[in-house]
Write a structure and sequence with these properties.
alpha/beta, AB_hydrolase_fold, about 240 residues, cytoplasm, Dienelactn_hydro, hydrolase activity, about 35% helix, Rossmann fold, 8 strands, 8-stranded mixed beta sheet
Length: about 240
């Protein structure tokens, strides 16, 4: 099997046994998972899933984590009905699969979600976070969308977006030191471009010893050496949103 000799690098980690505290809703042509805090708020975060799709329990866990910190969180199906990647899939088909799911072609869906958050949820300050494929989508949105206030790109695949560095909004970039899918030389080049061209606040942070997926694909208790960095990255993510939303 091709995916035994060359597994998808995003398969690293665990699928959390987690049900979620939110609910699934229909937002025009998009299905979405929505989680709301008990107290009224005008702050919301769009959570962009990785290649495994909007129903992955890990992503809903993060959405609920945001809600526990006072945010309305919504994780829409940015594949719009197409299946997410499955670990059992043959990785030799990955590139062909990916061509039908472009992280820079989500603007229509984002506009629909923004309208829903503003009109149905009372949100006025909206940020975005994303993981892997979703991290690349965050990079795209921070370059293009004027209606978002801040973004967090978590091991966003740099080669998936156009390499632009003139960000419109404060953006926090989380990377793993030992990420086989996002090489550190690409991260270094991104930093150089941001330093030259970016006019808004940004931060690029590399977490020692970590691998792709560590923020949402590893349990906190999976390894004593990893736990501090998993918790630190999640805290950094929340702090960035708190600062700019």
């Amino acid at each position: 099997m091709a995916n035994e000799s060359r597994p998808c690098p995003c398969d690293i980690g665990d699928r959390f046994d987690y049900g979620g505290r939110g609910q699934e809703v229909q937002v025009e042509h998009i299905r979405a998972y929505v989680s709301k805090p008990s107290a009224t708020t005008d702050k919301a975060v769009i959570v962009i899933h990785d290649i495994f799709g909007w129903q992955l329990s890990n992503t809903r866990y993060v959405a609920d984590m945001l809600t526990a910190n006072g945010y309305i969180a919504i994780c829409p199906d940015f594949f719009v009905g197409q299946e997410g990647w499955k670990p059992s899939n043959d990785f030799s088909s990955f590139d062909a699969w990916l061509k039908t799911r472009d992280a820079s072609k989500i603007d229509k869906e984002v506009d629909v979600v923004l309208k829903y958050l503003k009109e149905q949820c009372g949100a006025k300050k909206i940020g975005v976070i994303g993981f892997c494929w979703g991290g690349a989508a965050v990079q795209h949105l921070m370059l293009k969308n004027p209606h978002l206030k801040a973004g967090v790109s978590v091991y966003g695949v740099i080669r998936f977006f156009d390499g632009g560095s003139s960000l419109l909004h404060p953006t926090f970039f989380i990377f793993a030191e030992k990420d086989d899918y996002v090489p550190l030389e690409q991260v270094t080049l991104l930093e150089q471009k941001l330093k030259q061209n970016c006019k808004v606040d940004y931060e690029v942070k590399i977490y020692p010893g970590q691998t792709h997926g560590f923020v949402h694909r590893k349990r906190e208790d999976i390894n004593p050496q990893d736990k501090p960095y998993i918790e630190e990255a999640r805290k950094d993510m929340i702090n960035w949103l708190n600062k700019y939303l």
